[in-house]
Description:
Layout: H1 6-40, E1 42-49, H2 57-61, H3 76-89, E2 94-104, E3 109-118, E4 127-134, H4 138-144, H5 146-153, E5 156-165, E6 172-180
Antiparallel strand pairs: 1-3, 2-3, 4-6, 5-6
Amino acid sequence: MINLKKEQIxxxxxxxxxxxxxxxxxxxxxxRKKKKIMSVxxxxxxxxxxxxxxxxxxxxxxxxxxxxxDGFGGRMSTKIKEQLFALYEKGINPEVTDLKxxxxxxxxxxxWEATIKPSSDGKAYTGFMxxxxxxxxxxxxxxGQEKGMKERVGGKNYKLVLDFKNPTGIYxxxxxxxxxxxxxxxx
Length: 187
């Protein structure tokens, strides 16, 4: 048995109390941040302008990630995946709950906004991809890419976020999907 003096007992009680308070405060702060994320979500925004003289400007206009031919693109999928993964690392299964896309064909400008929140179905959607086509026959070409893209990307449980059809100017059909990655299982 350990013999402690009154002063030593009070010191131990004080230190224990400080540790307990610090742990409780940390827990409450984390809970509040998690609750705020769950109710508000994270907004990711981006956009790009196709420079004049870019080859195949109509094609470049729907290069939300990047083109194979010259690497031009808005890196949308990359930015969204970074935020999905950041939420996942906080112990929350993420998903894109809203995606808005605006294309100005006259000025070759694209703006987009994605809302990321905790998953409504418990799955961890840490992957995001897009594919599509522009001009005449864009619908058939875009839809024809789906199977091959999913095979190349991998993942599972694909969920369509947005089936975008440009309402004015250059016709564009673009599909946006989120999916689960095997290496990041649901929490």
